[in-house]
Design goal:
By secondary structure, this protein is mostly helical. Among the domains are: about 80 residues, Orthogonal Bundle (434 Repressor (Amino-terminal Domain)); about 140 residues, Rossmann fold; about 80 residues; about 80 residues, Winged helix-like DNA-binding domain superfamily/Winged helix DNA-binding domain (Arc Repressor Mutant, subunit A, Orthogonal Bundle); about 100 residues. The chain is built from 37 helices and nine strands. Helix 11 crosses helix 12, helix 15 packs across helix 20 and helix 29 packs antiparallel against helix 30. The longest helix has 24 residues. The protein starts with 7 loop residues before the first helix and ends with a helix. One of its GO terms (molecular function) is DNA binding. It holds the Pfam family AAA_16.
Amino acid sequence: MTDDDVPFGALLRRLRLAADLTLEQLADASGVSDRGISDMERGVSRSPRTRTIEAIADGLRLGREERDRLLAAARAGRVSPAPVAGLPLPRRVSDFTGREAELARIARWTAGSSAAAPAPVVVVSGPPGVGKTSLAVQAAQAWPAEQHLFVDLRGLDDKPLTPAAVLGKLIRALSPEQHAVPRDLDEAAALWQTLSRDRRLVVVLDNAIGEAQVRPVLPPHGPAVVLVTSRRALSGLEGVRRLRLDALSETDAVALLGAILDDPQASRDSLRRIAELCVRVPLALRIAGNRLLSRPGWTPGDLIARLAAQERRLDALAAGDLQVKAAFNLSYQQLSGVARRLFRRLALVPGPSAGVELASVLAQEPIAVTEDALDELIELSLLQQRPDGRLEFHDLLRLYAQGELEREEGAADRAAAVRRRDDWLLDTAMRAGLFFEPGQVAPAGCPFTTGAEAGDWLRREAENWLPALQSAAAAGQDQRVVEVADSLHWFSDGWANWPHWLDVFSLSAGAARKLGDDRLTAIHLGYLAWVHIVCLGQPEIALERAREALDHATRSGDRKQIAWAHYYIGWALSRLRRWDDVLTHAREAVAGFRAVNDREGLPNGLTLCALAVQGRGPADEAIPLYEQVIEAVTDPATAPPAHIALFIETVSRSFLANIEIAAERWPQALRRVDESVAAAERLEHSLERLMTARSQRALVFARLGRMDQAREELAAVRVLLERNGNTEPRPGALRDRLTEVESILAAYDAQNSSM
């Protein structure tokens, strides 16, 4: 071998010995660490920087010829070796579909990798079967690397790879001649960092069980890139990028099925239904497609029929050694006992999501213990926490949890859990509703301290307490149904856009009838009339329910309920613009309310009288009547409870604003809408009234030519609509008003753009 053929490490050692220097002496002379020089001589460090070689050459006091030979040997050592076959990437699936946004994000995070910056590390987490490994392999192959290394960490096996074993695999892959890997973890990590330094590597660490398994492998500097996949979030890793993978979009799920089947005759509707039943999870989609391919006699409809049967769906999602249930089971076995019990019982949540409190009831554990178990489930991607804090899992995981519940807990235990669930939901709903009932005081031990808290809970858990109410009705618990619905009556005024009040008050009216109680039946038929007037815009049906209520109230002899029935009849008639009839029933209601000193009913009856006068005309005659209503609800001697008084005041001020708007008295209208907005802003649970008031102000500003302020009000109404769960308002006055404002603004903009 000539001097030109001597490897850099061997040449450096020869020159050091010729200079009669120890490693320590050369380190002192050059400023390069003795460890670094040793790594170069042993071939561990194959690509030292030019300035490092220059410093060593200075320390050796080399002449020009020897210096050039050393630099040339170093350059030769930097030539990338042929990739070894020790840890190749798995085969990339040919029908990989979608995930463009995720791949673009990974590419962006890793694009700037360099030796001068920390090595990019991306943790891809998500529930079983969503394609974490496939995504990591796809991203790794797209990255321009000197070498790709893939290690299955076996995180869900009984014995996952130890950090030392992981390092051993990687070290031998980069340096096959390195037969002995240090047993000490720190020394092995240091050797790995030395070997990977300045190398353009992509390391995929698949299926990690925890942070400790991968932390020693993470290089401190680029240009190496590390992609970690795990069902766990690996929240303890610092300085990493995180990508949570969920189900595919509907479009991508259908496209994946189409690519697997490769059948142009397959109906898109059928593929969409299969994707829906597989909750768009790639593993389930792939199994479903493979099952269809392996059974030539099957049609997509045959597979849909099997998947549609919930009790058979998980068993149907198996093809060869691919099983959705097996993938879920690996995660389930990782859980603690409390977390397993909670996971199983979350299958009993009637709605699509739950709060921590309901989870605590199901688990029969204190909140703190339940939160720890929920963290465990979320960390392992068996449960997802939404931005609003609610907890949910997809249908396949729910079916798996249901199966484990039936396998591990007896029928009596399951029935007891359901009873605890429903009792807690309905009891809590009643306690929350009490905050809105006139004259009621929250009982001791109530979980809420304010009406805002109570209202928020009723909205959040409606998807669960409504099914509990329906179950109570089906079980014949009529008194219970009536009591729960009655406790929610005043709250419903502030959440009129919820589409299920018809269900609530239909159940309670039916339960009252079955109890044979005319007074209760009249009350709940009145609530039903309200639903058809306010929520559904069906005044004819409302009129029927209100007249039924009057019949039952009359039979009961209850003067208060007779007055309320007249009120509901008049209200329904007002929507039919039968103003003389409205006034007749409104006066009957006012007389009845006064006779029984009903402070809640009287201002409502007076408001209806004013509305009838306004409708019959001239509208200005109604102004003093509305002002009397406002005086009645703001005078402590006659006022109902504060939240009811404020609601009626807001409604009355809104009607006063409408009178001024209709008369086109814009300065007076602005004063009225300002008062209406001020009142509505004090209401805790009626975004509808605030939307009405601010839309009125938007219209007044537009008519006054104050276009910027009109736009601000319009934008505020749009925000309120979103907060209220709507993208567009229901047909009616609010929508008409917004349309009018937008038309005025559009005309103004068109006129200005043409100037």
